[in-house]
């Protein structure tokens, strides 16, 4: 059916139900071509949630333009590999900031960052815990404690719309209730104020997260070099990053878990001093 109603290059939005939330639908094939090779793909829990994300981002970007608010990024985590640590540090330098790592990667500092009205980008690269029996404990493992979806909900509603990249094993995992509500970190962040997220559907090799980070943010760097800022298509950035991993490591395990949720057009920059 997709082949008949879509064309190559169109951005496809999947709004799944039940256990389909946990499947990489972008790995399906159309006439022998993987969907992620044919189309940029985006996921959302519902079209209503997508509409809310769209309106929140548009309102935030309009206000930031009016107020001339500089683009602000906050980076957190403790990557499990040395290349991961270097990638996090390098990314922070590109955004004119320092990554909050080791004893600076705390729940207090993360809460402060999320409550900052100027926050435009949150990037986390580290450990994530997901417990099937109690998804409300799904959380980012910080230096002092786990920052769970309970903590994210407690902060809502946040004063800003932002993008969150959550690179942790199974950060995009979730549990669907009998009423088809989705419980997990991604819906929690989207509920609290994020208009888009990048997450992973299963545990990954940190080498893949490093490769994903490098390619995903290429569009950000290009826009920032221009000085005035501009729009980045996150769906195309995600597609490019996933395919870059697939080119080097063809197994579905390596590339299939990286997914984008929410509204995919994102204004980047200019950076503050």
> In this structure, how is the largest beta sheet organized?
5 strands, mixed
Q: How many E-type strands?
A: 16
What structural category arises from helix and sheet content? alpha/beta
SS element count, helices: 11
Helix fraction, binned, reads 25-40%
Quick structural summary:
The protein is α/β, with parallel strands linked by helices and 273 residues long. It has 11 helices and 16 strands.
What do these coordinates show?
The chain is of the alpha/beta class and 273 residues long. 38% of the residues lie in helices and 23% in strands. The protein has helices spanning 2-5, 35-38, 47-67, 82-94, 107-114, 149-155, 185-192, 206-216, 218-225, 234-248, 252-255; strands spanning 12-15, 29-30, 33-34, 41-44, 72-77, 119-125, 128-129, 139-141, 146-148, 162-167, 175-176, 182-183, 194-200, 230-233, 258-262, 265-268.
Strand-helix topology:
Layout lengths: L1 H4 L6 E4 L13 E2 L2 E2 H4 L2 E4 L2 H21 L4 E6 L4 H13 L12 H8 L4 E7 L2 E2 L9 E3 L4 E3 H7 L6 E6 L7 E2 L5 E2 L1 H8 L1 E7 L5 H11 L1 H8 L4 E4 H15 L3 H4 L2 E5 L2 E4 L5
Parallel strand pairs: 1-4, 5-6, 6-10, 10-13
Antiparallel strand pairs: 2-3, 7-8, 8-9, 11-12, 13-15, 14-16
Task: Describe this protein with a few key phrases.
11 helices, globular, 3-stranded antiparallel β-sheet, single chain, 38% helix, 273 residues
């Amino acid at each position: 059916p997709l082949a008949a109603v879509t064309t190559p290059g169109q951005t496809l939005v999947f709004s799944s139900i039940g256990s389909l939330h946990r499947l990489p639908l972008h790995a399906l094939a159309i006439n022998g071509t993987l969907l992620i090779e044919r189309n940029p793909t985006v996921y959302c829990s519902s079209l209503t949630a997508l509409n809310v994300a769209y309106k929140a981002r548009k309102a935030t970007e309009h206000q930031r333009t009016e107020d001339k608010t500089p683009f602000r990024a906050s980076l957190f985590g403790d990557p499990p590999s040395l290349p991961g640590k270097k990638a996090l540090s390098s990314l922070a330098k590109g955004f004119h900031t320092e990554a909050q790592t080791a004893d600076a990667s705390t729940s207090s500092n993360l809460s402060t960052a999320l409550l900052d009205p100027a926050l435009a980008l949150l990037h986390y690269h580290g450990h994530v815990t997901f417990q099937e029996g109690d998804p409300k404990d799904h959380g980012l493992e910080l230096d002092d404690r786990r920052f769970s979806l309970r903590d994210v909900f407690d902060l809502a509603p946040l004063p800003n719309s932002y993008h969150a990249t959550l690179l942790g094993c199974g950060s995009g995992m979730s549990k669907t209730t009998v009423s088809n509500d989705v419980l997990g970190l991604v819906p929690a962040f989207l509920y609290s104020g994020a208009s888009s997220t990048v997450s992973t559907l299963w545990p990954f090799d940190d080498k893949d997260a490093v490769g994903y980070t490098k390619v995903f943010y290429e569009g950000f760097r290009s826009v920032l070099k221009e000085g005035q800022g501009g729009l980045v298509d996150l769906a195309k950035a995600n597609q490019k990053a996933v395919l870059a991993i697939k080119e080097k490591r063809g197994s579905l395990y390596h590339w299939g878990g990286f997914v984008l949720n929410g509204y995919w057009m994102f204004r980047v920059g200019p950076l503050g001093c």
